[in-house]
Amino acid sequence: MFGLSVRFTLKDDAAADGFDALVAETLPLIRENEPGTLVYAVHTVEGKPLERIFYELYADRDAFDAHEEQPHVKRFLNARGAFLASVDVDVLSLLDAKGVQG
């Protein structure tokens, strides 16, 4: 399996609203069109209203690569920059989990 943890810090409240709207447009398309995307979870952070954390888990690196090539993901990647102050990405290797077959 292949995973990512991504922390987005947004510019301001208006940027947070725009980013959340962009996520709301994108996530249903990920659900409907990406069988290799096993988990795509978007979180707010308590006490940090301008932060969002994504946890992404893919069947393998090929599934991640397929995700990155989707038109809805390309649109998200191109549009998100308008809302961001910073982004931090960690590539993860799944050691063990409940609810995920590895």
Automatic annotation (TrEMBL):
One of its GO terms (molecular function) is monooxygenase activity. It comes from the Bacteria. The keyword Oxidoreductase applies. Residues 2-92 form the ABM domain. InterPro entries: ABM_dom, Dimeric_a/b-barrel. It holds the Pfam family ABM. This is Antibiotic biosynthesis monooxygenase. The keyword Oxidoreductase applies. Signal peptide: none annotated. Keywords: Monooxygenase, Oxidoreductase.
